Amino acid sequence: MNPLLQRLHPYPFERLRELTRDVVPSPDHAPIGLGIGEPRHPTPKLVEDALTGALAGLSAYPATAGTPALREAVAGWVRRRYGVVLDPATQVLPVNGSREALFAFAQTVIDATRADATVVVPNPFYQIYEGAALLAGARVAYANSDPARNFAVDWSGVDEATWARTQLLYVCSPGNPAGAVMPLDEWRALFALADRHGFVVASDECYSEIYFRDEAPLGALQAARALGRHGFERLVVFTSLSKRSNVPGMRSGFVAGDAKLLKAFLLYRTYHGSAMSLPVQAASVAAWNDEAHVRENRALYRLKFERVTPILSDVLDVKLPDAGFYLWAGVPGGDDVAFARGLLAQYNVAVLPGRLLAREAHGVNPGAGRVRMALVASVGECLEAAHRIVAFTRNFP
Question: Is residue 218 located within the same domain as residue 76?
Fold first, then answer.
């Protein structure tokens, strides 16, 4: 048995199940789940039609590198969205969702023969970053979020000695759970660190198309181009159709950036068996080539956040994020676990305690005292959940 498996922490939802095992949800209320970030808006018909129209492709083995049509569709979307020109043959690679790729990428770039190999992750964070680092044989360093900046990451909390040991940095912008978007100056500082210490930057951008302001979130490739880094040295971005196009079950995304890194990643994936089926590739082409359904999806999220956030802000410390589909809310009394347990028991609404998404680092757990709410249900359900949360909070703790 691989001894590194013993280093893994239980997944947040496993921990939540254990923490609520003895809780009996209120039978007087229909269940509403805000805990898991699983998109629930309808899948666009054009994607369904493209998928079913390509079922003949099930009779063939797909290439790990994907079809030229898919790589060209991805490159076309990147050009339209970010104004960045990519070589579809060398700077784009389809993946089976960003989660799979974020994990596998660490196995490609980490040199575990170095005993001090380090991966830096934001804190709170998507647990795949940590698990990928640990199973690659690296240690993990945490950069805490800063409440004073709407929970953007405070990279200055990582000391120079740690940066010197770092081989891989995971960045999430828009962030999970707080939705903060990194500005250009922040990218400039991280690229300077990467140049000085030689580490790779993996930018998780799966929430990039759900935003609430007029200007779309800045992407890492876009930032690199603006700073004159046209070859995207030591930079790879990860994104997915799951949130953008409401197809989490399709498991489709892409990575793009440094051609040298992608060549090595393709070699790893060829042995790993990570090829995307041809029907999913055809459906992905249809999704990347259409923006109408993305605008409709974004408008629906905006409506939910516009209606729900003011209701909750009367009783919780919460405000509109930069982007994403989560509300990151501070709870009275600071006990996020007790809040989640009580809310489930009394009103049958599930939320995720913030401390389960973070680690104790620099003397604090930056997720403690907050809960993550995924506004993925219908408008009506989200509003009903908000009113139940208000009723519960008025008598908590």
Answer: yes
Q: Is residue 50 in a domain?
A: no
210-224 pLDDT, tens digit per residue, is 999 899 999 999 999
Specify whether the CB–CB gap between 242 and 248 falls below 8 A: yes
For residues 225 and 341, membership in a common domain is answered with: no
HEC sequence for 7-19:
HCCCCHHHHHHHH
Say which CATH number the domain at 162 has. 3.40.640.10
Q: What number of residues does the chain have?
A: 397
Cβ atoms within 10 Å of 199's Cβ, excluding its own: 22
CATH code (residue 365): 3.90.1150.10
Name the residue type at position 331: V
Phi, psi of 91 (to 5 degrees): -115, 10
- Exposure b/e, 285-313, CB count within 10 A at least 16 = b: bbbbbbeebbeebbebbeebbeebbebbe
CA separation for the pair 145, 365 (Å, rounded): 10
Q: Is 87 exposed, middle or buried (0-12, 13-18, 19+ CB in 10 A)?
A: exposed
Quote the tokens at residue 382. Answer: 């989200």
Residue closest to 172 by CA, chosen among 126, 223, 118: 126
Q: What is the pTM of this model?
A: 0.97
Domain region containing 331:
3-42+293-393
Does 236 lie in the same domain as 374? no
Contact assessment for residue 182 and residue 205, using Cβ atoms and an 8 Å cutoff: no
Decide if 101 contacts 95 (C-beta within 8 A).
Answer: yes
The pLDDT tens digits for 277-329 are 999 999 999 999 999 999 999 999 999 999 999 999 999 999 999 999 999 99
Q: Which of 236, 271, 290 is the last residue of a domain?
A: 290
Conformational region of residue 150, where left means phi above 0, alpha means psi within -120 to 50, and beta covers everything else: left
Q: Are residue 135 and residue 13 in the same domain, yes or no?
A: no
**What is the number of other CB atoms lying within 10 angstroms of the CB of residue 185?**
9
Domains: count for the chain: 2
Same domain, 81 and 109: yes
DSSP class of residue 211 equals: B
Which of the listed residues 255, 290, 325 is the one where a domain comes to its end? 290
